[in-house]
Amino acid sequence: MQSQFWSLVRSLGRGRLTRVDDSGPVQLVQMQLSQSETRDRTPRLCEYGFSSNPPDGTDAVAVFLGGDRTNGVVIACGNQQYRVRGLASGEVCISDNRQQSVCLSASGIVVNGGGNPVTITNAPEITADTPLLHCTGNIGCDGNIQAAGDILDNSGTNAQSMAASRHTYDVHWHDVPNVQGGNGTARSDPPQPQQ
Questions:
Q1: What distance in Å separates the CA atoms of residue 116 and residue 185, rounded to the nearest whole number?
Q2: Using an 8 Å Cβ cutoff, are 34 and 14 in contact?
Q3: 43 CB neighbour count, 10 Å cutoff
Q4: What is the pLDDT of residues 140-188, one digit of tens each?
């Protein structure tokens, strides 16, 4: 009975990570369980689709099969310093130690770049069934802009789209006053687009 008790006690361990090897198919960690016990090259399991490389000092829980402290696997990690706080019930947040995060909040999805660029790669198309973007800063573009609808600039003071402005420009003309040879007024041809 007593041996079963100690086997159960030795089956679980709590400590801190001191090194992570993320180079192989299975992440291997070094974990300090106590002043006198450090386990090296212990596999760490993560949920499918979620990968992380926890910083040194991250809390960890390990399971040791049959109480054998040389045969363990880390099943959970958490870092007190970088944990996102104040989430409401049901909210989810993915974050790192650089203040970057993606939060599924009650009011919508919030992406925080932590002062770093946000890059979308290998996505030939982004589709949304509602207005896609509201930008409070400048937008730069290295390629062409294609719009199936109208483009409206200076929307705070201008109600006319660029297509409407182009139409007005294309069909307008100017009177040419004081034409020689009479008192009449000649009218210019509509402007032609420059080649």
A1: 63
A2: no
A3: 14
A4: 889 998 888 888 888 888 888 878 777 777 777 777 666 666 666 666 6
Q: For residue 125, what are the CA distances in angstroms to 56, 119, 122, 128?
A: 39, 14, 9, 10
Which two three-digit tokens encode residue 82? 């970088």
Residue 95, class by beta-carbon neighbours within 10 Å (0-12 exposed, 13-18 middle, 19+ buried)? middle
CA–CA dist 184, 180 (Å, integer): 9
* pTM assigned to the model: 0.70
AA identity, residue 40? D
Distance, CA of 66 to CA of 69 (rounded, Å): 9
Query: Which residue segments constitute the domains of the chain, with CATH numbers given?
Result: 2-78 (2.40.50.230), 84-119 (no CATH)
In this model, does residue 4 exceed pLDDT 70?
Answer: no
Query: Tokens at residue 62, please?
Result: 């390990």
Residues 6+ apart with CB under 8 A from 175: 185, 186, 187, 188
